[in-house]
Amino acid sequence: MAGALLTQGGGERDQMAADIYKAGYAKNILLTGLGGTVDSGQSFYQSPSALFLLKQGAPAEALLFDGLSVNTHQEALNIAILLTAHHWHSALVVSDPPHLRRLDFCLDSVFKKVGLSYRLIPSTVPTWHADRWWQEERWRQFCFSEVVKPIFYAVVYGV
User: Fold this and answer.
1) Cβ proximity of 79 and 64 under 8 Å
2) Is the predicted pLDDT of residue 158 greater than 90, yes or no?
3) C-alpha dihedral over 69, 75, 79, 80, to 10 degrees?
4) pLDDT tens-digit profile of 3-28?
């Protein structure tokens, strides 16, 4: 069992997180990428992802939140801090298929340094087709950013 299940939230990612949690593979769910998802004065529990997971049966005490990170590299750092603070050694990480390579790039560089492990789990996105991603504007833009951002992280953060 993993100490935490991580999801960046949204649609298929939330559903995958709910399914994995219900199956008993993790004790907690950390919602990341929440910057700007809740209005001033609102609780992270009022974010669409949290509300969905609560409706799916996840107890409020199982939900954790990262509202500080503004990019994947910062998420990797903050996740490592959280796991270490809770004495958890592993995490399951849910995200969209084209984002998994950058997640792996960021998590690997941070987690190895502190002895943590993770497993990447692709969400099931009906519109994602690995063999023809370039045919849809949404995925063309997404995949382009997935190529550019690791270069930025390498230059800025020395990853």
Assistant:
1) no
2) no
3) -120
4) 667 777 678 899 999 999 999 999 89
Radius of gyration of the chain (CA): 15
Q: What is the pTM of this model?
A: 0.85
> HEC string of the chain?
CECEEEECCCHHHHHHHHHHHHCCCECCEEECCCCCCCCCCCCHHHCHHHHHHHHCCCCHHHEEECCCCCCHHHHHHHHHHHHHHCCCCEEEEEECHHHHHHHHHHHHHHHHHHCCEEEEEECCCCCCCCCCHHHCHHHHHHHHHHHHHHHHHHHHHCC
Strand partners, 117: 90
Domains of the chain: 4-128 (3.40.50.620)
- Nearest residue to 30 via CA among 20, 40, 41: 20
